[in-house]
Specification:
The complex is a heterodimer of chains A (232) and B (403). Helices cover 37% and strands 23% of the residues of chain A. Chain A has 232 residues and is α/β, with parallel strands linked by helices. Chain B is α+β, with helices and mostly antiparallel strands and 403 residues long. Chain B has two domains: 3-46 and 266-399, no CATH class; 51-254, no CATH class.
Chain lengths: 232, 403
């Protein structure tokens, strides 16, 4: 099998700014270079307000960059139309949020099925297997409100993997969990990504979480917008 | 999970507001259906009821009053017709059947009408439908104080064959005005669903010669029901000219259906107001869908942002909201048919008890096809405003606070 030397994700001169309440334009993200290999797992360390979430949203295609390029698996997704970015996200990405963002009206299994619905289509057997894998085989038909915080996080993990993504983005995925659950959740995310062949890009400010990654990068150094603000 | 699954779960999640909004649509739908069906059916029924006759000859006056009095057994008689006039029209070569009617008495408010047995034996109250007696009954004997009771009166007054009763003078019941004569019920009509069901039928001479009635008028009658010979439509014009234009003593109400149609034309404005009110109610109900979904958009923003983050396109969340509104409307329409069934049965019963005319609320009416379509479309239309809001949801802003 030929191994590609091209990284799964490559970011060049990525810029994003927002209009601040006072009307001034505020640059949030300015990342000259970033890449992630297929199947790799990397953590980005950053404090609150450092632009990490915006960076992940740019990679996910939820936001369109002001400038710069994002290449994903050979496609320049930064040039995609919104519709193409939606499709790209549905087919290639999993996203784990700090607040889990589960749909309250859906059961555990339905939340996972929903993660597949906009991409390659729902595969009930695979969804049930994922739920089993994250230890929720006996909670398939429970609503989020009937699950503990740790269990909700596991549903979020299963949902992120539901569309067989090439990359899972995790934004402070353990921020709402206690230390014990946090460690277990992180181990589960990493194992599940590895088992499913998905790369993992995780952002966190928690040294405990970051310490478990072989490769960690300081997002505040990576993001020139923050560095410039700090210098000012 | 397809778009319908998403819509279903959203409806389920907001079950209370779904139920309340659908209930308001159901009430509006039921009301609209009832108004529409009752107005179209009653118009058809009242213009279609003619007791099997083409015209009514009566005293000079309003044709409508004549028809209401002789066919629907409502209103007072405009006056009397001389026996000679009856014989004249009876002997007209274009007249197949002429039946005299005499009114002026009642039994506890139920109208007593004097007539001849020909009304039952020679005429059909509707094409192919002749009056029939319930088992054990006979037609009255013109020479005896006997009565045939309409099915509705029999049911309400619990009259049966062999029962005796005293008529009361006048069309309005007054217990002081009891006649001395005793009548025997000899037959009860099978339900005809026509005004005849609300009448007690006795021999013509009975009314004419009832004690207390003016003896000078004992050969006069109230009206003549006229059936023209088949194929002699021109005779109607001739008789119309003869009685209404050339003469000035009598009125010839012909054709009966047109007289009633003119009544409906006159009260057409009322009909239009009713319809307008029903549509306004429908508009208010569908606006409630708009209000209910629009008001819930703040709490839904996050759900919609999650859908978008999972890869749902803007147009899909737009469609979800529009479909949700249409689905609430559709639910309302379904329940609305139940409300219609209840309302229409009540209205039909009231109309039957007041006029004897029986509506058929469950017979097909085109409104039963276009009303659901119109309501679902209106519902979908109401969903467009909140759907635009859904379309514009900022995904990044509504997922998590930026960090």
């Amino acid at each position: 099998m030929e191994i590609s030397t091209e990284p799964l994700l490559r970011v060049r001169n990525l810029q994003k700014s927002f209009v601040a309440p006072d009307g001034a334009r505020q640059r949030i993200v300015e990342v000259p270079e970033f890449s992630l290999a297929a199947g790799a797992q990397q953590a980005l360390a950053g404090e609150s307000g450092s632009g990490k979430t915006t960076f992940l949203n740019l990679i996910a295609g939820i936001l369109k960059p002001d400038a710069g390029t994002i290449w994903f698996d050979g496609a320049m997704i930064s040039e995609f139309s919104e519709q193409q970015r939606d499709r790209f996200r549905a087919n290639n990405l999993g996203y784990i949020f700090q607040t889990f963002n589960l749909l309250q009206g859906y059961t555990c299994l339905e939340n996972v099925l929903l993660g597949m619905s906009f991409g390659h289509g729902a595969d009930r057997v695979f969804a049930e297997n994922l739920c089993q894998r994250v230890g929720l085989g006996d909670r398939l038909h429970h609503r989020p409100s009937q699950l503990s915080t740790g269990q909700q996080q596991r549903v979020a993990v299963a949902r992120a993997l539901a569309n067989r993504p090439k990359l899972v983005l995790a934004d402070e995925p353990t921020g709402n969990l206690d230390r014990k659950n946090s460690r277990a959740a992180l181990a589960l995310i990493r194992e599940a990504c590895r088992e499913n062949g998905a790369a993992l890009l995780l952002v966190s400010h928690d040294p405990e979480v970051l310490g478990q990654f072989e490769k960690t990068q300081d997002f505040q150094q990576l993001n020139r917008a923050v560095a410039a603000e700090a210098a000012a | 999970m397809n778009i319908f699954g998403i819509v279903f779960r959203s409806l389920r999640q907001h079950a209370l507001s779904t139920a309340v909004t659908a209930a308001s649509v159901a009430l509006a739908g039921g009301l609209l259906l009832t108004v529409w069906v009752v107005k179209t059916q009653s118009q058809a029924a009242f213009t279609g009821v003619n007791g099997g006759f083409d015209a009514v000859l009566g005293a000079r006056g309003s044709k409508l009053q004549l028809v209401l009095n002789s066919i629907f057994h409502l209103e007072a008689s405009p006056g009397n017709v001389a026996w000679q006039d009856f014989l004249e029209i009876q002997n007209n070569p274009d007249v197949e059947l002429a039946v005299p009617l005499a009114v002026g008495d009642n039994f506890h408010g139920w109208r007593i009408v004097g007539t001849t047995p020909e009304l039952f034996q020679k005429s059909a109250f509707a094409p192919g439908k002749k009056f029939a007696l319930q088992p054990g009954g006979n037609w009255f004997d013109p020479a005896r104080r006997s009565a045939v009771v309409g099915s509705f009166v029999a049911e309400k007054m619990k009259l049966k064959v062999g029962d005796k009763f005293h008529p009361f003078h006048g069309l309005v019941f007054d217990e002081q005005k009891q006649h001395a004569e005793t009548y025997v019920v000899v037959g009860v009509l099978k339900p005809s669903n026509t005004p005849a069901d609300r009448v007690i039928w006795i021999p013509l001479a009975g009314v004419q010669r009832m004690s207390g009635h003016n003896p000078d008028a004992d050969t006069e009658i109230s009206a003549v029901l006229v059936k023209l010979k088949a194929g002699s439509a021109f005779a109607g014009f001739q008789l119309d000219t003869f009685y209404n234009k050339q003469g000035n003593r009598l009125t010839f109400a012909w054709p009966i259906g047109r007289v009633m149609a003119e009544l409906f034309d006159k009260i057409g404005w009322f009909d239009r107001v009713l319809t307008l009110v029903a549509w306004l109610v429908a508009l208010v109900a569908t606006s409630s869908i708009l209000a209910s979904i629009y008001n819930s958009m703040n709490e839904r923003r996050r759900e919609l942002a999650i859908l978008r983050a999972l890869g749902a396109r803007r147009v899909l969340v737009f469609a979800v909201i529009v479909l949700e509104a249409a689905a609430i409307s559709a639910l309302g329409v379904i329940v609305g048919f139940g409300i219609y069934a209840g309302l229409a049965l009540i209205v039909a019963q009231i109309i039957r008890s007041q006029t004897g005319v029986m509506l058929e609320p469950f017979a097909f009416n085109p409104v039963m096809l276009w009303e659901p379509v119109a309501f679902v479309l209106l519902g979908a239309l109401a969903g467009i405003v909140p759907a635009i809001k859904a379309y514009r949801v900022d995904v990044a802003q509504n997922l998590t606070p930026n960090s």
